[in-house]
Amino acid sequence: MPTFTHFDAAGRAAMVDVSDKDATTRVAVARGRVVMAPATLAKIVEGQHGKGDVLGVARIAGIMAAKRTAELIPLCHPLMLAKVAVELTPAEPDAVEIEATVKLTGQTGVEMEALTAVTVAALTVYDMCKAADRGMRIEAVRLVHKSGGKSGEFSAS
After folding, report:
1. I want to staple 93 with a disulfide (CB 3.0 to 4.6 A). Which of 38, 46, 106, 144 is the partner?
2. Which of the residues 8, 17, 94, 127 is marked catalytic?
3. What does the record give as the active site (predicted)?
């Protein structure tokens, strides 16, 4: 069984020491979705939403969030990310699919940054559309791929 790593010898929460790890290229991909009323999605797609370009604003929010993950999640390492890409795709009839890809060459992975990017992009869609659709749901935020580092490759089935 894998062990949890964010504990010191005394059992207290601690940032993992990655100083002895080799720097490798690490990539993480996360996905999620925002489910909404079909009419809400139609307004987003048609550019008829009163608050502007919902998908464009959410994409930027996701990128910014990935860059600030260490400020949001306790014990995450501050990282110099090489790439953050966030894509939001309308999925008829009632959802926006979100995918974030994060990459760096370093001593620790970028899974949390990818997951944070998807989550904040989804929250931004929700925030911009909540006045028209309080029943929206953020669903299925998950890691779908990770490569690099000591633990190797992971792909969700």
Report:
1. 38
2. 127
3. 127
d(CA 151, CA 34): 31
**Alpha-carbon dihedral 4, 21, 148, 157, rounded to 10 degrees:** -10
What digits encode the pLDDT tens for the residues 114-145?
Answer: 999 999 999 999 999 999 999 999 999 999 99
Give the residue numbers of the binding site.
75-77, 112-113
Question: pTM for this structure?
Answer: 0.91
Would residue 127 show up in a list of annotated catalytic residues for this protein? yes
> To which residue do tokens 């990459």 refer?
103
pLDDT digits (tens, 9 = 90+) for 66-117: 999 999 999 899 999 999 999 999 999 999 999 999 999 988 889 999 999 9
DSSP 8-state secondary structure symbol assigned to residue 80? -
Helices (H), 68-146: 69-72, 111-129
Binding region for substrate: 75-77, 112-113
Whether 26 contacts 149, CB under 8 Å: yes
* Nearest by Cα to 63 from 118, 111, 142, 19: 118
